[in-house]
Structures are given as C-alpha cells and as structure tokens.
From TrEMBL:
Pfam families: Cation_efflux, ZT_dimer
Name of the protein described by the UniProt record: Cation diffusion facilitator family transporter
Record bears the keyword Cell membrane: no
All copies of domain Cation efflux protein cytoplasmic, residue ranges: 223-292
Organism: Terrabacter terrigena
Ligase as UniProt keyword: no
Localization, UniProt: Membrane
Domain Cation efflux protein transmembrane: 24-214
Organism classification: Bacteria, Bacillati, Actinomycetota, Actinomycetes, Micrococcales
C-alpha cells in the first residue's frame, strides 16, 4: 500500500490559505460600508437599500467565517485524530454563506409583500449616493477575490456573495433613478424582489457544490469510469475495483482503489506508475492504492 503525506498545516499548501489576504482586505471594505448602507437605508426608507444592506451583513459574516475557516484549515493537527487535517472547515463556512444568502432572500420577499397597498416614502438622493459608493466597494472586492475563486470553494463562496452585492448595488442605483424619474416607490420594491431572486439562485447553486463535497461525490469534471479505465491501462494491472474518488476540500481530490496484478513482484512498479498517472492526469492530491495478486482467493479490503 502506498504511503501518504498528511496535512502540513501551511497556508501555501491550501488554496484558501494562499488567498487569505484577499479575504481580509475584502472583509475590511465590506464591513466598513455595511454600517453606512444600513443607517442610510433606515433613514431613507428604501427597501432596496435595506435589502442590499442585509446582503452586505451576510457578506460580513461570510467573509469573517471564511477568514476563520482558512486559518483553521491551515493549522497543524496537534491531536493526532484529524488524519485529514481541518481542511473541511472551509466547506462548512461556505455552507454558512449559503444559509445566510437564503435567509436574506426570504427577508427581502417578506418585507416587499408587507409594503403592498401601503406605499412608503423613499429618499432617492441618498439611495443614489450610497448605491454608487457600494458599487465601487464591491468592484474592488470582486477584483481582489476573483483570483482565488477558481481554486478555493471558500473564496468562491465569498466571491459569489460580492457578485450578488454588486448586482444589488446596480439595482439600488437603478431603483433610485426610477423613483426620482417617476415619483413612484413601486420601483424600489420591484428592485428589492429582483435582488432577492438573484441572491436565492446563486445560493442554491453554491449549496449544490457544498452538498457534493460533503456527500463525497466524485470531483467536478472527473468521471470515475475514466479513472477506472486509466488505472486499468497501467502496465501490470489486470483488474481495478473498489475505486472511490472525492474532494476533501478545494484543490484537494482524493482517491482509493484496489489494483490487481498477476505478478507479486510487480507491486512497487505498478504502485509508482498508478500514483504518478493519478497525480499528473487527474490532479489527485492524495491516492491510497492497495496492490493485490490474482492468486488471492478474495479481496483483502472493504466489503461494501
């Protein structure tokens, strides 16, 4: 059986840890703006502004949780019991982001329905100014987080939150212009509902990715049948069974498999070739391979 290298507890080895500084800067920007938007939303009476502030609040919590998660995920295990380290912390943080996004969407819808038949007074000027400032803050945060969103599910969750906020800021600006042009606060409610729908759709999509990781589904873009075929083509391998492939956390795909060979002395060669193939072709960060020979009466391994 191949030996493995446990989690090293270094930020450089973990996708989320490498981009922690991006999360920290975005957290500072979003947190500072949230207070301004919340106060202005309450004073102006704008539901669109309040809804965007609510989403900003979700951003603040999400970015904070992401920062904590990346720190936990990259720390060394001192207990000896977390054999895969704490890398899954970022996945749980992303799940929190999903729940917060859905909660904000529900809140917006409830508030919008409560305004039916009772028009509110909205200060469009304050909406326009704060919406514009929010757009600048979100664009800067997007540029910061974009670089790590392709590598880390945690950073991706924060990135999608800011994407939704950027759309929200654009919506606030549009609502302010429409209210100012028509004098009707109807547009404020319509934009708020549109923001809620957008946030909910993004949350459901990200939630699906979280479920796939926690459910130990095959990594996105990796077909188990293709891995089986590739392992079967390794010189010396006559059969492959008990293959399992899953994602431990962003950028860390894991695989286990039993490889059958007809020659007992071919084990080391088969092991080296199979491990190299998985690493180079499928980017599997950690593979545990059990070598068996055809003269064994039964598989020495899992019975499920």
């Amino acid at each position: 059986m191949s030996h493995g290298h446990g989690p090293r507890g270094t930020e450089g080895a973990h996708a989320g840890g490498r981009h922690r500084w991006r999360l920290a800067v975005a957290f500072g920007l979003v947190g500072a703006f949230f207070g301004v938007e919340l106060v202005t939303g309450l004073v102006s009476g704008s539901l669109a502004l309040l809804s965007d502030a609510g989403h900003m609040a979700a951003d603040v919590v999400t970015l904070g949780a992401a920062l904590v998660a990346t720190r936990i995920a990259t720390r060394a295990d001192t207990t000896g019991r977390r054999t895969f380290g704490s890398y899954r912390a970022e996945v749980f943080a992303t799940g929190l982001a999903v729940l917060l996004m859905l909660g904000v969407a529900v809140y917006i819808v409830v508030e919008a329905l409560g305004r039916i038949g009772s028009p509110a007074t909205v200060a469009s000027g304050a909406m326009l100014v704060v919406g514009s400032i929010g757009l600048v803050v979100n664009v800067v945060s997007l540029l910061l987080l974009r670089g790590g969103s392709r590598e880390s599910l945690n950073v991706k969750g924060a990135y999608l939150e800011v994407v939704a906020d950027t759309v929200g800021s654009i919506g606030v600006i549009a609502a302010a212009l429409m209210v100012r042009a028509t004098g009707s606060t109807y547009w404020d409610t319509v934009v708020a509902l549109a923001i809620a729908a957008f946030v909910a759709v993004r949350a459901v999509g990200l939630g699906g990715e979280v479920v796939a990781v926690l459910g130990q589904h095959a990594p996105s873009g990796m077909e188990p049948t293709a891995v089986l075929q590739a392992l079967g083509e390794v010189p010396g391998v006559t059969e492959v069974h008990d293959l399992h492939v899953w994602t431990l956390t962003s950028g860390m795909d894991v695989a286990t498999a039993h490889l059958v060979t007809s020659r007992a002395d071919a084990g080391p060669e088969v092991l080296e070739a199979a491990s190299r193939m998985l690493r180079e072709r499928f980017h599997v960060a950690h593979a545990t391979l059990q070598i068996e020979t055809t003269d064994r009466s039964r598989c020495q391994g899992a019975d499920w």
